[in-house]
Design a protein that fits this description.
Largest sheet: 2 strands, antiparallel
Structural class: mainly alpha
Strand content: under 5%
């Protein structure tokens, strides 16, 4: 096996591990949390795997995994088929996390995640309008977006903790 084939196989393996973590996040994203008369879902939770996608992964395998995660969320959530798949695929192509380098610092990561959630909400509104023929309700999207942005510190800590206990520099939760 040549070095190039080995690197491609390693990159594909990283994408598959990330996809498995993403499938877990999609499953958890179906939870609905009620608090003080308000209901919030975790529908934006799978964006964490998109944000933390490892930079050493194979691009084409990663794109297929992201599209598959979106389709899984569409099927499990019962929404319009292809809505999340298109959102995730478009955002993955735009941000291309397989090559990005983000500056250090928790606050920078948090702000970039807020931008990603905001872009996803806007894209969901546009694609939801096209697929449903009417505007989706913006208030639940806004509440769910704010809720997942407030959960980002926990997600960030889980990522750091998992990297520390495994000693992995390029694992499925990214750099």
């Amino acid at each position: 096996m040549t070095e190039r084939e080995g690197n491609r196989l390693t990159g594909t393996s990283i994408a598959l591990r990330s996809g498995l973590i993403g499938a877990l996040l999609v499953t958890v994203s179906l939870l609905n949390i009620n608090f003080a008369g308000y209901s919030a879902s975790l529908m934006f939770l799978p964006l964490a795997i998109l944000y933390f996608w490892p930079s050493g992964s194979n691009y084409s395998a990663s794109l297929w995994m992201i599209a598959g995660l979106g389709l899984l969320q569409d099927m499990m959530g019962g929404g319009p088929l292809g809505l999340w798949m298109l959102c995730y695929a478009i955002l993955f192509i735009v941000i291309n996390p397989t090559t990005r380098k983000v500056g250090p610092g928790f606050v920078v990561h948090w702000m970039l995640f807020v931008v990603l959630v905001t872009a996803t909400g806007g894209l969901t509104m546009v694609l939801g309008r096209i697929s449903l023929g009417q505007n989706p309700s913006a208030l639940p999207l806004l509440l769910n977006g704010v809720f997942i942005c407030l959960l980002f510190p926990i997600l960030y800590w889980i990522r750091l903790f998992s990297r520390q206990i495994t000693g992995a520099d390029n694992m499925a939760w990214g750099r």
